[in-house]
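Reviewers of the previous submission asked for a worked example of the structure-prediction workflow described in the proposal, so we include one complete record here. The input consisted solely of the amino acid sequence. No template or homolog information was supplied to the procedure at any stage.
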Amino acid sequence: MESFEQPGDDNVGPVRAPMHPAWIRWLPCSVELFRVVPSLDPFPTTWWDELSPEDGTRIWDEPVWCDPGDVDDWIAEAQENMPGTSREVAEKEARDEYDHTTQERSERIERFTTACRRAEVPVPHTVRQLLQFLINIELYREFTGPDGEQWLAPQLTRNPLDVLAFDQSEALEESADQRSDYEELTTIAIRNLIGDAPHSHGLSADVTLDDEQPDVSGAVNLHALAEVADVPAPVIRGMLLELAAKGDISTEDTDLETVKIDESFELSASVKLLAAYTNDELLPPEHS
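From that input alone, the workflow returned the following structure tokens.
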């Protein structure tokens, strides 16, 4: 997917608007385009036009969902990147991954379409239409500028539970999914601060690991973990309490209930936890 270019002046740089992690599961991938903003204060919509490449209209007319491409391309890439593996095995893995990706993509589009219908807003198909969608559901706040032009300010930190229409069971499921999001973000932050588990890259959550493999330990504090995870420190504290209760982490003599936000403490994380989340950031389901 193409992106808006940043301005060349080093003194004028865009920032990345904060966004509630759950929107990564709900919104099309192209929402990342609209996280690039001049500031978190109101700005003219035309600012994005100034950042676009020479053929700016091409980006605005791009589809909102990523195109997985042709399965034959996936097979060719797998066969090239899996030396020592038979072509048949590489093809099967590529087809399985492609099927998973397209299935997740289809389910996401269907769920997003339902959310649009319940909100009584048009389903966006292009990048430009996606911006209007974000305005319609108030993830962007709209203003009238000094010369009568459209100005916007991001409100992407709003919780989907406060924006979209959920029935009771859906709301409970979304709440559970959000806890999973925070667990992954917390684990990513732990890994960034204390290091990787040996041989953890490429492992999935269902891989059987040696129980005798030592935990990974290091000094952390809640503020640093929150900075890396890009979530509030109280959320990090809550997730550490949950992970400790499940036996995934330990903090020796430190009481997670009372430790100060900037107070350093020793944290040990299990290899199984670190191996369960090997990405460097939250990804949409079809890309994870």
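The chain has two domains: 15-64+124-165, 169-287. We consider this example representative of the routine output the project will generate in years two and three.
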